Amino acid sequence: METVLNPVIILIKAKSNFHPMSEKAELRESRDIRHSQKFKLVNLWMRLAGLGWQVAVTGRRKNLLDEIVASKPDAIFASAFDADETGALPGRLEETVARLDGMDLLVICAGCGYLNADLSPEPELQTVATNVAAFTVSAAWAFNYFKKQGHGHITAITSVGGMFGEGAAPAYSASKAYRIIYID
């Protein structure tokens, strides 16, 4: 059973008078974002767009991305691509940042998982491709982008599943543990 695959990556250009400490507290005040990853993401990009930030969302499913853009077309745009195509991923991220005219925050939330008690190789490898390879390419690309720019923030949405093994979904748990350690 597949879990989350969309949106994959959110790239954000802060409003011009951005000060990270002033808005950190305001974003933390939202206690209603604990229900599901999808709800958390919707709440995140809608709140940032409401604060005047420009938001780019990416993912494979153009129809879902179009729904997101329709919710706030003046502040949100979408780039449809598959993060699992890691060879093309840096170029796709560059194109998206160019459309955004810069980036101050990257939220990596790409993820998938399968119940796979039989340990069939294909679902395990698909989970690793998205949760480890695509994540690593995105994080390394963003690190180098922000290093060159002289500022920026990388954050990742992962899972408590990375803290404990899960017999029916071992690649999912292991990949989430990888992300927790990598982003630390």
Short description:
The chain has a single domain (9-183), classed as Rossmann fold. The chain is 48% helix and 13% strand.
Q: Radius of gyration, rounded?
A: 16 Å
Overall number of domains: 1
Give me the CATH fold name: Rossmann fold
Number of beta-strand segments: 5
> Which percent range fits the helix content?
40-55%
Q: Give the CATH level 1 class.
A: Alpha Beta
Strand percentage: 5-15%
Largest sheet: 5 strands, mixed
CATH architecture descriptor text: 3-Layer(aba) Sandwich
Poorly predicted regions:
1-8, 16-36
Count, helices: 6
Strand order of the largest sheet: 3-2-1-4-5
- Sketch the topology as an H/E string, one letter per element: EHHEHEHEHEH
CATH H-tier superfamily: NAD(P)-binding Rossmann-like Domain
Roughly how many Å apart are the termini? 29 Å
Question: What integer is the average pLDDT?
Answer: 80
Overall SS class: alpha/beta
Please state the overall shape, judged from the principal axes of the Cα atoms: globular
Identify the notable features of this structure and list them briefly.
single chain; 184 residues; alpha/beta; Rossmann fold; 6 helices; 48% helix; disordered N terminus
Describe what you observe in this structure.
With 184 residues, this protein is α/β, with parallel strands linked by helices. It has a single domain, classed as NAD(P)-binding Rossmann-like Domain (Rossmann fold, 3-Layer(aba) Sandwich). Helix content is 48%, strand content 13%. Strands 3-2-1-4-5 form a 5-stranded mixed sheet, sandwiched between helices. Strand 2, helix 3 and strand 3 (76-80) form a beta-alpha-beta unit. Helix 5 (121-149) packs parallel to helix 6. The two termini are 29 Å apart.
